[in-house]
Design a protein that fits this description.
Blueprint (H helix, E strand, L loop, with lengths): L4 E9 L8 H14 L2 E8 L5 H22 L3 E5 L4 H9 L3 E6 L3 H5 L6 H20 L2 E4 L2 H9 L8 E2 L14 H7 L7 E7 L7 H13 L4 E7 L12 E3 L4 H9 L3 E4 L12 H8 L4 E4 L6 H7 L2 E4 L4 H14 L12 H13 L2
Parallel strand pairs: 1-2, 1-3, 3-4, 4-5, 5-6, 7-8, 7-10, 8-9, 10-11, 11-12
Helix pairs in contact: 2-3, 8-12
Length: 356
């Protein structure tokens, strides 16, 4: 039985935890792990369904958290998003430790979004507001070392701030067999299959994978590139890849089980490439990973736990040769144990928090 920490916490986020996105699912899993390890956890989130209520929800959420801080006096207040200003001030008065989860350089990433006009101005304004909240708290929990280094380099983070990558929940594993998964999704049992699941975004290097499939075809390598979850038609105009979309979390896990290897490319166009949730879905389902080389959050995790190889997807021919070698090198390899569940990650959180 896990021994619970004596800490009590309040966790505030300005998005709906019941949503179906990767962020929603990962946050639910993380909070479930956290709830099992602390004496008490109060969670305040935004379940607003209408635009008007969402506009004013950041005030309502802030007041609600402030009431909990005053009445319950928890040890730590953690927030994420654009709400929490008043609660941070209250925590200072009550000498409650305040923290922020930081998953991106929001100001930088707002300029990469495909929006214009009032919507873009609103996003940029919210990004600057969130950045101000990030700097106001006692300490910050980053999800990537490059992001932490960027903040420290500009004097926005302290030496006591830390980073912890994302993780997975054991409950997210699919129990389907590889052969049954292939049968379900119309994939031959004899095919060599590499799979990418998740958002079909240029940020994620989807175009690299379409180019890779062209290279496979040119060299008669007989390797199938399969996308699950998002629509990749704008990147794959010739429809040379198999794209199964839409596909929910359960379907994505099943498709992962159908693969020989899973793909993890990324574009080098941000301060932090992020901590990819799909990497931990791959690990949860015990599939070896082909990860973007020389990239924290990608190749370092894969190499640390021996769950795959680093591949430079920016060089299509080099990537092709590395993948061909991987099919030989990993043919009979057993999948290793990996301490990257949300329980493992929350243990790191609590070890760091105990220092304060």
């Amino acid at each position: 039985m896990t021994m619970k920490n004596k800490l009590s916490m309040v966790y505030l986020c300005n998005f709906d935890l019941s949503g179906s996105t990767g962020k929603n699912r990962a946050t639910r899993q993380k909070l479930s792990a956290l709830r099992g390890k602390v004496s008490r956890l109060y969670v305040v989130s935004d379940g607003s369904k209408f635009l008007l209520s969402r506009i004013f929800s950041f005030i309502y959420l802030d007041v609600k958290v402030a009431f909990i801080l005053i009445s319950c006096k928890p040890d730590i207040f953690i927030s994420r998003g654009y709400s929490g200003f008043f609660s941070i001030l209250i925590s200072r008065v009550l000498k409650i430790t305040s923290a922020r989860e930081i998953h991106a350089n929001a100001i930088e990433e707002s300029s990469l979004l495909p929006y214009k006009g009032i919507r873009l101005l609103a996003i940029k304004g919210l990004s600057r507001w969130m950045h101000a909240l990030d700097r106001l708290v006692d300490f910050r929990i980053f999800n990537h070392p490059d992001l932490l280094a960027y903040f420290r380099g500009r004097g926005w983070a302290r030496d006591s701030d830390f980073y912890v990558y994302n993780g997975f929940s054991p409950d997210s594993r699919s129990t389907i067999s590889k052969s049954d998964a292939r049968k379900k999704y119309g994939i031959s049992n004899d095919a060599k299959v590499v799979v990418f699941v998740g958002t079909a975004s240029k940020w994620h290097g989807v175009d690299y994978l379409v180019n890779l499939k062209k290279c496979f075809n040119k060299n008669h390598d007989d390797i199938e590139v399969v996308f699950g979850g998002g629509d990749v038609s704008k990147f794959d105009r010739e429809h040379i890849c198999l794209n199964i979309s839409p596909l929910d979390d359960v379907g994505c896990s099943e498709l992962i089980k159908a693969s020989d290897f899973c793909l993890l490319p990324v574009k080098n166009n941000r301060v932090s490439p992020g901590s990819p949730l799909k990497l931990y879905d791959y690990i949860a389902n015990e599939r070896f990973v082909l990860a973007q080389s020389n990239t924290n959050g990608y190749s370092d995790e894969v190499e640390r736990f021996g769950v795959g190889v680093s591949v430079d997807f920016t060089s299509t021919e080099d990537a092709r040769l590395a993948i061909l070698r991987a099919f030989e090198d990993f043919k009979d390899r057993q999948y290793p144990e990996c301490a990257v569940s949300w329980d493992d990650r929350i243990d790191v959180w609590l070890q760091k928090l105990d220092i304060r």
